[in-house]
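S.,

Sequence below, as promised.
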Amino acid sequence: MDKKLRVGILGATGMVGQRFISILENHPWFEVVTVAASPRSAGKTYEEAVGDRWKMDTPMPEAVKKLIVANVNEVEKVAAEVDFVFSAVDMSKDEIKAIEEEYAKTETPVVSNNSAHRWTPDVPMVVPEINPEHFEVIKYQRERLGTKKGFVAVKPNCSIQSYAPVLTAWKKFEPVEVVATTYQAISGAGKTFKDWPEMVGNIIPFIGGEEEKSEQEPLRLWGEIKDGVIVKADGPVITTQCIRVPVLNGHTAAVFVKFAKKPTKEELIEAMVNFKGIPQELNLPSAPKQFIQYLEEDNRPQVALDVDYEGGMGVSVGRLREDTVYDYKFVGLSHNTLRGAAGGAVLCAETLVAKGYIEAK
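The prediction came back faster than expected:
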């Protein structure tokens, strides 16, 4: 790419906004030129607006420290400075839906980390290795919005990244029933242990809204476009429990699967490790070379050892074995704020650029 695309971050001062800032620091295609946040942060430098709330392990990039934070509600003003935006705004769902469509109507593509538009029928919700063809629904969304270039695209919930790719790799064996328990890191709630000391040495067996997302969103990934909207798949049947655990980064899933066709363990491992998609074929900047790795050791995957696999963009799987009630069971691990949040959105944006949906204004 001759010239980098100009990127804005909506909700730039929050934890996911910070993650966007961090991972885009040396991006070969994208340059952060605008940061936008709530009116109370507007007018300050980014460094001043974030203050002591910088939550990343790496230092705040020098290039953004002196950027003046824009008011996210001044849509025309922000949109005029960028080619597209990443959205991580912290508002009510209705407010998020409205403001993301408002940006799209300025002919500014929006790649969102938020859940608000995940079930809007003509908004693609994409994991680029799984369902990039869903981006084709954008043409119908543009008709609804009255835009030529503007649209909204989203990535799915962080909790499904540790098992939905695996089940996709096993599609030819026809999974029919899935039971998954996710053990989810506190950064999924936008927290660190400093913010949430009561999580130290604790487990909370409830995360609001998470189980419905974990059961339904994979079905939307596996759905198809009919009459200009995405229709979710009929199966497999998925039931989940989602538990908050005292881990900073990394969602682990313990998963049980029943198949219509009976694969061998070797066939399942081969299908997993060979699974790839458009990001790998096009060698996109954020794409993991190996999307899913299989670990033979009985005590893997572990958050401490494996959460940063492929720069946090890969999925680690272990303990695949036959089960006495279901056919097989396994443990999956993914990085919830990289593959599961900002990194997944960046990979979506790279795919959209490669497919011609995002270009310089």
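Residues 125 and 154 are 5 Å apart (CA to CA).

Coffee later?
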